[in-house]
């Protein structure tokens, strides 16, 4: 057995947007490598063990991180390196992964929710739409010099850049062919309580950034697919919208117990990893050990779902049913006394004594 390094996507910011697998890896980790500037502390505080070693890789050189990986290989430690959003987007995953493989460590990449997906969900728009924009171009913080070349394709663009470069971005988008009325969404700290989601156009982008004082790294979504649909006012005489009757499967999906069961599983992993209790030895006794009790969650609907999904018993075939009908019926004796008819009494003849 050797050490393991898991590259986990922490999501766009909110602690509950991390995946279940990522939360489990955090609960099992002996060492958590993260940057508080890009990953919220609530995510680590919620899912990591209290005794886990926390390393801020933004304040230590890369050589110390490599030494940490060597220590993990020698001591068989479980290390989690947290990435903001998804590790495969602007996270420097390749170099870290190759370094761990050279040291003989087991590696794993756990995907996460990207900030691009979270920003599209915040404005309730898909980033690609048929007839408008069939492609999505992602540009990192160091790729804004190619914005004009990418803009020539007319696709939806997701640009991660500092707000101080807004004027430069607007100039290159115009050079690529985007008109001033092109819709733009500016997302900053998306999914967090202090998030900023602003809708504007390419012509008013600089004023929008100055108004909200967005001078740090933000996400700019540009394209016709982000055009806002005007709200429809209800006219007099409109019929109320009829809601469809939910099916059995829709009712099962909408149960709150499903999310409760998922998060209870995460907390079980966390508590088991934090406690580090040894598994109880198996005994050959038939009766359970004293002090152990079976806890049943009242919100668990697994048995109900299994009963609902169980296939119906097959009906007997006609030949078997006909044969069953030909069997003689069994007669069960009754305990009620029968009323018997009385026979008519016959006259008795008088016997005479013989001498």
UniProtKB/TrEMBL annotation:
Belongs to the precorrin methyltransferase family. It comes from Saccharothrix australiensis. One of its GO terms (biological process) is methylation. This is Precorrin-4/cobalt-precorrin-4 C11-methyltransferase. Residues 298-355 are annotated as: Disordered. Keywords: Cobalamin biosynthesis, Methyltransferase, S-adenosyl-L-methionine, Transferase. Pathway: Cofactor biosynthesis; adenosylcobalamin biosynthesis. Residues 308-347 have a biased composition (Low complexity). PROSITE patterns: SUMT_1. GO terms for molecular function: precorrin-4 C11-methyltransferase activity. Residues 5-205 form the Tetrapyrrole methylase domain.
């Amino acid at each position: 057995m050797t050490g393991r390094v898991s590259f986990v996507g922490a999501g766009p910011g909110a602690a509950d947007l991390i995946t279940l697998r990522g939360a489990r890896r955090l609960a099992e980790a002996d060492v958590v490598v993260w940057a508080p500037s890009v990953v919220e502390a609530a995510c680590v505080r919620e899912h990591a063990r209290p005794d886990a070693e926390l390393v801020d890789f933004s304040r230590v050189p890369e050589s110390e991180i490599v030494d940490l990986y060597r220590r993990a290989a020698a001591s068989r430690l479980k290390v989690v390196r947290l990435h903001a959003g998804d590790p495969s987007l602007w996270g420097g995953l390749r170099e870290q992964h190759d370094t761990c493989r050279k040291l003989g460590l087991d590696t794993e990449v756990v995907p996460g929710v990207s900030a691009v997906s979270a920003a599209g969900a915040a404005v309730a728009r898909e980033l690609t739409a048929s007839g408008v924009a069939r492609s999505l171009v992602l540009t990192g913080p160091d790729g804004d010099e190619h914005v004009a070349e990418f803009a020539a394709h007319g696709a939806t663009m997701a640009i991660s850049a500092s707000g101080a470069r807004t004027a430069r971005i607007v100039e290159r988008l115009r050079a690529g062919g985007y008109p001033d009325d092109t819709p733009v969404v500016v997302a900053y700290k998306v999914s967090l309580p202090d998030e900023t989601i602003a809708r504007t156009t390419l012509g008013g982008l600089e004023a929008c950034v100055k108004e909200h004082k967005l001078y740090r790294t933000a996400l700019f979504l540009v394209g016709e697919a982000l055009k806002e649909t005007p709200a429809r006012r209800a006219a007099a005489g409109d019929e109320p919208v009829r809601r469809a009757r939910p099916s059995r499967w829709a009712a099962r999906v909408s149960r709150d117990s499903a999310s409760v069961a998922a998060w209870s599983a995460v907390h079980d992993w966390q508590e088991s990893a934090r406690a580090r209790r040894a598994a109880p030895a198996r005994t050959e006794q038939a009766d359970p050990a004293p002090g152990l009790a079976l806890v049943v969650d009242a919100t668990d609907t697994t048995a109900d779902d299994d009963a609902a999904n169980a296939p119906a018993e097959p009906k007997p075939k006609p030949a078997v049913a006909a044969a069953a009908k030909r069997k003689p019926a069994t007669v069960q004796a009754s305990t009620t006394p029968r009323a018997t008819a009385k026979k008519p009494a016959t006259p008795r003849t008088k016997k005479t004594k013989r001498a």
